[in-house]
Amino acid sequence: MNAIKAFESVVRTGNMVRASEELSVSPSAVSHQIKTLETWFDRPLFDRQGRDLLLNDAGRIFFDLVRPAFEQLRTAASRLTEPPTGRLKVVICPSLASIWFAPRLRNFVESHPEIDVELHCRREIVDLNEADFDCSLRYCASVPENHVGDILMTEDVFPVCAPSLAKGNIPLNSLDDLRHHTLLNDVLGESGVVSCDWASWFSEVGMPQLIRPKGHGFSDSNVMYEAACEGVGVALGRSILVAELIKQGRLVRPLDVSRRSSHSWYFLSTTTKLDRKILGTFRDWLMEVTHLTLQHT
Fold it and tell me: Rounded to the nearest 10 degrees, how much is the dihedral formed by the CA atoms of 275, 280, 281, 286?
C-alpha cells in the first residue's frame, strides 16, 4: 500500500520531489517505493528520461484504476477533519425549550458557529421517519419504535412554592399541610407519566386521601411555575424544569419528599439521519451539557 500511495502521489503531483514533500519522506524513499511496485508487477510503470518520469501504458492503466479509490479516501478523511456545517431542525417540548435549552444555546453557538439551529416547539409526539426534522428532545419512557436515541436526563418530582407561601399563615411542614393549600395542576398533564400529576404523586407517597379536584389548571407548565413563584399555590416541580427557579430563590422545596418520574428526557433521531456529521456533533454536545446539568441539579 505504501508503494501504491507513492505511485499515485508521483503521478498526481508530477514528480518525486513534490511527492516526497506531500508524503513527508525523502525523494530516494519515494524512488525506492516506485521500484518496489514495478518489481511486484514485473514491468516498468514509467518511461525514464533523465530525471523525468513519464507514465507508460501500463502505468496509465494502473493509475486510472487506483485514482478513484484515493479520491474516495481523501473525501472520507476530509469529512472527519473539516468542521461540520449546515442547519439542524430540532423539535422540542416548549417547557424544555424555554426553561432549559434556550439558556444553553449560546454555549452551543459559540462552540459551533458553523452550525445553525432551527428550533420547533411542539407538544405532540413527532415521528422523525415521516417529519422533516433531524432530531427531537422528548419526554418519554423509552426510545419509540423505529427510532434511535439516548437518555439525556431523568427527573425527580416534588412540591414547590414561593418562599412566602411556605412560611405563611399555614406553613408547609408536612404532607398533610398540603390539604390546606391551593394546588396548581398542569391540565394537559403528562399522560401516563407516573408521579407527574398530583393524583399519581400522592398515590406514590402513600397518601391518596390528599387527592382532590380543587385547584387551578394550566396548559403551559412554564406559566404554572410562574404562578407558583407569585404565591398562587403549590405546584409539582420537575427537577430539570424548576432547578433554575430554585437556584434564584423564587421557588423553594418546602418538603423533603420526592418521587422519580417514570419518564426521562431523550435525544431521539433515526439511523439514517444520524449519518449527518452535524447531528452527531449536536448529540455529543447535548450529552456533555446534560451531564453537567445533572451534576449541579
Answer: 160
Output the pTM of the full model: 0.68
Helix (H, G, I), strand (E, B) or coil at 214: coil
* Angle, helix 16-23 to helix 2-13, in steps of 10 degrees: 130
pLDDT tens readout for residues 55-83: 889 988 998 888 888 877 776 665 566 55
- Looking at the DSSP bridge assignments, the partners of residue 156 are 260
Q: Do 72 and 162 reside in the same domain of the chain?
A: no
Q: Are residues 54 and 102 in the same domain?
A: no
- Please provide the DSSP assignment of 123-184 as one string: SS---TTTSS-SEEEEEESSPPTT-EEEEEEEEEEEEEB-HHHHTSSS---SGGGGGGSPEE
Same domain, 258 and 182: yes
